[in-house]
Amino acid sequence: MINEFFKITINLKKIPRQGWKNKLGMTNPESVADHCFSMSVIAMVLSDLQNLDTTKVLKMALMHDLAESVTGDLTTNEISKKEKKKLENETMKKIFNNLPDILAEEYLSIWNEYQERQTDEAVFLHEVDKLEMAFQANVYAKEGIQKQTLQSFFDTARNEIKNKRLIKILSKLS
């Protein structure tokens, strides 16, 4: 069963980030796994600087889009936020069923904490998700995509990030 969990995880490398495809018309955007890796490194460093529970933050970061290995990267144009949350919660339960019970319970608890933004770590990670998106938009701008086309990604990050350290980092990007 654990092999099935690993197969599901590895599949994330094949899932393209749909927002880049939809809004920019990109045919080969970063994968969800690419995003998760970058986000995890950013979260690790900034979590340590903020004295958060970095181990928990990293587990959240690595799991935060894992359901997309099964569902694909669904956007709000395709499914409502409420429906997406329900689908992802059901999918994560199925994914975690491939793990030993003690891990499945721990990971599901961390997943729920993230989904419900119940802790400083969860709130922080949601904001890091937006910061990483802005960093990627900045990469795409340097690769020749017009800044105007990318502006909605920067605007979303600016609107959703409240953490002062993250705001300062973001301000140097856009």
Q: Any overview of this molecule?
A:
It is a single chain. This protein is an all-alpha fold and 174 residues long. The chain has a single domain (2-171), classed as Hypothetical protein af1432. 72% of the residues lie in helices and 0% in strands. The chain has 10 helices and no strands. It has helices spanning 2-11, 18-24, 32-49, 54-63, 68-71, 81-96, 101-116, 120-142, 147-160, 164-171. Helix 4 crosses helix 8 (120-142) and helix 8 runs antiparallel to helix 9 (147-160). The longest helix is centred in the C-terminal third of the chain and has 23 residues, at 120-142. The protein is globular. The termini are far apart. The mean pLDDT is 95.
Write the layout of secondary structure elements.
Elements: H1 2-11, H2 18-24, H3 32-49, H4 54-63, H5 68-71, H6 81-96, H7 101-116, H8 120-142, H9 147-160, H10 164-171
Helix pairs in contact: 3-4, 3-8, 4-7, 4-8, 6-7, 7-8, 8-9
